[in-house]
Design goal:
The chain is α+β, with helices and mostly antiparallel strands and 138 residues long. The chain contains 5 helices and 5 strands. The protein has one domain: 3-Layer(aba) Sandwich (Aminopeptidase), CATH 3.40.630. The longest helix is centred in the N-terminal third of the chain and has 11 residues.
């Protein structure tokens, strides 16, 4: 089951997973993570017993742009379509449906996102400032 209820997110589970298993969020302080939850659309994936097994966060203006990030499914629940269901729910959610551009970054899950219609960005027009976690959270 996919749910967008903020109060249902298992903050300890999600923060713990991201801070220890996600290279982009290694050692993210709990307070920083909580602030990101408050200003984003967050989707949780839940097992029949109600326990959280996956997460996806969307940063969006709800009109023209959305950024999908912090996506994960707990290892013991992978290969059951949960990641696909999270992405589908994010793209069809009322806060993101119809936005002109949806972006994400991935090193390992190109196939997952391709199934939902994502393609590699064909040009190199994007620029970034990317601070290391050590610069921000140390």
């Amino acid at each position: 089951m996919i749910d967008d209820s903020p109060g249902r997110i298992d903050v300890e589970l999600v923060h713990g997973f991201l801070a220890t298993h996600a290279p982009w969020a290694t050692n993210i302080p709990r307070e920083t993570f909580i602030r990101s939850l408050r200003t984003s659309l967050c989707l949780g994936a839940y097992a029949p017993d109600g326990g959280q097994v996956g997460f996806l966060r969307v940063v969006t203006d709800q009109a023209t742009f959305a950024w999908i990030c912090d996506v994960f499914v707990l290892p013991e629940h992978r290969a059951h379509g949960i990641g696909d269901a999270l992405v589908k729910a994010a793209l069809e959610h009322p806060q993101t449906a119809g936005v002109r551009r949806v972006l994400l970054a991935t090193d390992t899950a190109h196939g997952l996102y391709a199934r939902s219609g994502f393609v590699a960005v064909p040009d190199n027009q994007y620029m970034e400032i990317a601070y290391t976690p050590q610069q921000l959270w140390s």
